[in-house]
């Protein structure tokens, strides 16, 4: 016997991001020929879902900039300098939603303010609702996936190196990726 599916109204409530099942990552073009992928390993976030009026939902995420991880210690060390994130001076990257646009029952645009190195810019992140389930511990869990491309120079991250063959070492465009699993607060 299968459990009945959740309705959007069933999902209304406050949620906490599950860091062990959520990935906040990024992709940057490197040397104009390949992509470097990385993630932030330390963050916390919350959301309020309004199943009856999804446009009234909201979310907030706080990322520890020092937790950047590209699986390369030398590169990560450089990303932690003032050339890039400078987490000693700017320890947090934040996103605070300001609105939600409903595209259809499974697709949304989350509008909000992204702050990197004390520079705040509006961004719109397309998100897909991936589903809801009751986990083995009795928690209601929801999943969302989204991505948005930003220009790092808009946030004061301008360092680069010219390549002998033309072009630059690091792309200006960075894709931020979100694979979110959130647990409904009891």
Automatic annotation (TrEMBL):
<protein>
    <submittedName>
        <fullName>Polyisoprenoid-binding protein YceI</fullName>
    </submittedName>
</protein>
<dbReference type="InterPro" id="IPR036761">
    <property type="entry name" value="TTHA0802/YceI-like_sf"/>
</dbReference>
<comment type="similarity">
    <text>Belongs to the UPF0312 family.</text>
</comment>
<feature type="domain" description="Lipid/polyisoprenoid-binding YceI-like">
    <location>
        <begin position="14"/>
        <end position="183"/>
    </location>
</feature>
<dbReference type="InterPro" id="IPR007372">
    <property type="entry name" value="Lipid/polyisoprenoid-bd_YceI"/>
</dbReference>
<dbReference type="Pfam" id="PF04264">
    <property type="entry name" value="YceI"/>
</dbReference>
């Amino acid at each position: 016997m299968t459990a009945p599916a959740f309705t959007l109204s069933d999902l209304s409530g406050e949620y906490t991001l599950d860091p062990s099942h959520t990935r906040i990552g990024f992709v940057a073009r490197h040397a104009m020929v390949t992509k470097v992928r990385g993630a932030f390993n330390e963050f916390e976030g919350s959301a309020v879902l309004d199943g009856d009026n999804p446009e009234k939902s909201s979310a907030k995420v706080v990322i520890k900039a020092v937790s950047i991880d590209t699986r390369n210690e030398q590169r990560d060390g450089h990303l932690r300098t003032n050339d890039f994130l400078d987490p000693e001076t700017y320890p947090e990257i934040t996103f605070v939603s300001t609105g939600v646009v409903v595209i259809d029952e499974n697709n949304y645009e989350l509008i909000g303010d992204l702050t990197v190195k004390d520079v705040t810019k509006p961004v719109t992140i397309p998100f897909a609702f991936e589903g809801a389930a009751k986990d083995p511990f009795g928690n209601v869990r929801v999943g969302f996936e989204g991505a948005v491309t930003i220009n790092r120079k808009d946030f004061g991250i301008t360092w680069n190196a010219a390549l002998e063959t033309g072009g630059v070492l690091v792309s200006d465009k960075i894709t931020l990726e979100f694979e979110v699993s959130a647990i409904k607060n009891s």
